[in-house]
TrEMBL record:
The gene is CYP15A1_7. This is Methyl farnesoate epoxidase. Transmembrane segments: none annotated. Its cofactor is heme. InterPro entries: Cyt_P450, Cyt_P450_CS, Cyt_P450_E_grp-I, Cyt_P450_sf, Cytochrome_P450_fam2. Belongs to the cytochrome P450 family. One of its GO terms (cellular component) is cytoplasm. Pfam families: p450.
Length: 486
C-alpha cells in the first residue's frame, strides 16, 4: 500500500513537472529533468566554482529548475550588483525546508521578508546598538576574548587553527544577546558549535535534493541527510528556548540585561496585539540567526588570516613592523589605531576577497514578475547570486588568484574603496553583523600578530588555500607553530 502511494505521488509530480516546465523566455541553463529539475547538475559542494563555469557556458544569468520551482543563478558581476540592489529581489524563498526550520513561518532576521522582516531587523539592530553593538561595550568584549586566546596560546608551541576561534567569536555577540560568556572548553558550547558546523558544511544555498523532492523526507530521511539536519536544528532551537525561558523567570522590566530581555519586554507589551510580530518562536529564530552568524563569519575569516600569515611571512612581518611603530609593545591595538594601520585593513580586505566566507549570497526571492538582461524572471523565482564571481573577476581585479593586499591601497598607502568589494553583500540585505565582524577581525588579528609570529611546524607542507565547502567556506585543517615575539 505504501509503495503504491509513493509511486502515485511520483507520477503526479512527473506529470506536474512536465506540464509546468520552464517559464517562457527563461534564461538558458543546465538540462532540466522531470521531477528533480536541474538539481542533479547542481553540485552540493563548491557551487561558486560551478557558477564560474556557468558564466562562461550560459552567460551572466542562468536558468534553473529546483524540482518544479524556477530559480536563477546570477553569475555576472554587474548583474550581481544590480540584483542585490533592486527592491524586487529582496524576498526570501518560500520553500518548505526554510519554513519547517522556522516553525512553519518566516521568522527571525535572516529568512524573513516583507513588513515583518523590516520591523524585526529595525528592532534588532536598534536594540543591539543600544546594548553596545559597534561601541565600546562590544570592543571590551572582543578584547576580553582575544586576551583569553593569548593567555592560552602562550602555553602552546603549536595549535590546530581550523575551528579554534569559534567559541571566542560566538561569545562576542552572545554577551549582547544573552548576557552570557562560555569558557573555550565548555562542553555544551562545543556541542552547539559542532551541530552548527555540520549544518553549514552539509547545507546548500538551493536547498538540495530534499527541497526539489520533499517526499524524500519520509522515504529516505537518513540517506538524504534530512534526519541529521533536523536533529541538529532541533537541538539548537531547544538550547535557545531554554535560555529564553531562564531569562523569563528572572525578567525585570526596569533592569534589562541583554537583547533577550529587551525582546521579552516587547513581547509582553504587545501581548494583546493580534498583529504583533513578536513571539517566543520569533525570538528563538533570531537567537539562532545571530549565534550562527557570529560562529561562522568571524571564526572562519580569522582562520583564513592565520593561513595567509603563514603562507606570506613577508606580509606578516610588515604588519608586525607597523604595529611596533604605531602601537608599540606597552599597550594593545585599538580601533582608534585604524587610521594609521591602513595596511592591516588592506590585508583583511584581501583575505575576505580571495577566500570569502560566503561565496554565494543567501537565497533571495523575486517578489514580482520582472526582466533581467532581457529574460523573464517570474514572481517567486529563487535567486542565488555569486559573490565569488564578483570578487574573482579577472577583468576587474587583474590577478584575482594572487594574494596582494596592495590592490586596496593608493600610492600614499591609503585604503582605496572598491564598489566590487562586497563580501558582506550589498543593498538592504547587507549582513546585519558587518560592524561586529570588521571590528572583531581588526582587534583579533592585530593583537595576535603583536604577541606572536606564526609559521609552519617543522616537516609540515604548506597548507592548502582550497576551502572546505558548504553554505559558508572554511579553511582546510592545518597546524601552525607559535613563537612569542617578546
Amino acid at each position: 500500500m505504501f509503495l503504491t502511494i509513493v509511486l502515485a505521488c511520483l507520477v503526479v509530480c512527473l506529470i506536474f513537472s512536465i506540464i509546468k516546465g520552464k517559464p517562457r523566455n527563461f534564461p538558458p541553463g543546465p538540462i532540466c529533468l522531470p521531477i528533480v529539475g536541474c538539481v542533479p547538475f547542481i553540485p552540493s559542494k563548491y557551487l561558486h566554482l560551478r557558477m564560474e563555469k556557468w558564466l562562461k557556458q550560459y552567460g551572466p544569468v542562468v536558468g534553473l529548475m529546483l524540482g518544479s520551482q524556477p530559480a536563477v543563478a546570477i553569475c555576472g558581476p554587474t548583474e550581481v550588483l544590480e540584483a542585490l540592489r533592486r527592491e524586487e529581489f529582496q524576498g526570501r524563498p518560500e520553500n518548505a525546508n526554510f519554513r519547517q526550520e522556522n516553525f512553519n513561518r518566516k521568522l527571525g532576521v535572516f529568512f524573513s521578508d516583507g513588513p515583518f522582516w523590516v520591523e524585526q531587523r529595525r528592532f534588532t539592530l536598534h536594540h543591539l546598538r543600544d546594548l553596545g553593538f559597534g561601541r565600546s561595550i562590544m570592543v571590551a568584549s572582543i578584547i576580553e576574548e582575544v586576551e583569553d586566546i593569548v593567555k592560552e596560546l602562550r602555553q602552546r608551541e603549536e595549535f590546530q587553527v581550523s575551528g579554534y576561534f569559534g567559541p571566542s567569536t560566538v561569545n562576542v555577540i552572545w554577551a549582547l544577546v544573552a548576557g552570557a560568556r562560555y569558557s573555550r572548553d565548555d562542553d555544551r558550547l562545543q556541542a552547539l558549535l559542532h551541530a552548527l558546523t555540520r549544518l553549514f558544511r552539509r547545507g546548500s544555498q538551493t536547498g538540495g535534493i530534499v527541497n526539489a523532492v520533499p517526499a524524500l523526507k519520509k522515504i529516505a530521511p537518513q540517506i538524504s541527510g534530512y534526519k541529521e539536519n533536523q536533529e541538529h536544528i532541533n537541538n539548537l532551537k531547544a538550547f535557545f528556548k531554554n535560555v529564553i525561558r531562564e531569562h523569563d523567570k528572572t525578567f525585570k522590566e526596569n533592569d534589562l540585561r541583554d537583547f533577550i530581555d529587551v525582546y521579552l519586554k516587547e513581547m509582553k507589551y504587545q501581548s494583546g496585539n493580534k498583529t504583533s510580530t513578536f513571539s517566543e518562536d520569533g525570538l528563538i529564530i533570531t537567537c539562532f540567526d545571530l549565534f550562527a552568524a557570529g560562529a561562522e563569519s568571524v571564526s572562519n575569516t580569522l582562520s583564513f588570516t592565520v593561513l595567509y600569515a603563514v603562507l606570506y611571512p613577508e606580509v606578516q612581518r610588515k604588519v608586525q613592523n607597523m604595529l611596533d611603530d604605531v602601537v608599540g609593545r606597552d599597550r594593545r591595538p585599538h580601533l582608534d589605531d585604524r587610521p594609521r594601520l591602513q595596511y592591516v585593513d588592506a590585508v583583511l580586505y584581501e583575505v575576505m576577497r580571495i577566500n570569502t566566507v560566503a561565496p554565494v549570497s543567501p537565497a533571495h526571492r523575486v517578489t514580482q514578475d520582472l526582466t533581467l538582461n532581457g529574460y523573464n524572471i517570474p514572481k517567486d523565482t529563487t535567486v542565488i547570486a555569486s559573490l565569488w564571481c564578483l570578487l574573482h573577476d579577472k577583468e576587474h581585479w587583474g590577478d584575482p588568484e594572487t594574494f596582494r593586499p596592495e590592490r586596496f591601497l593608493d600610492e600614499y598607502g591609503n585604503i582605496v574603496k572598491d564598489e566590487w568589494m562586497v563580501p558582506f553583500g550589498i543593498g538592504k540585505r547587507t549582513c546585519l553583523g558587518e560592524v561586529m565582524v570588521r571590528s572583531s577581525l581588526f582587534i583579533f588579528y592585530t593583537t595576535l600578530l603583536q604577541e606572536f609570529s606564526f609559521s609552519l611546524p617543522a616537516g609540515h607542507p604548506p597548507p592548502s588555500t582550497s576551502c572546505v565547502p558548504g553554505i559558508t567556506t572554511a579553511p582546510q585543517q592545518f597546524r601552525v607553530k607559535i613563537s612569542r615575539r617578546y
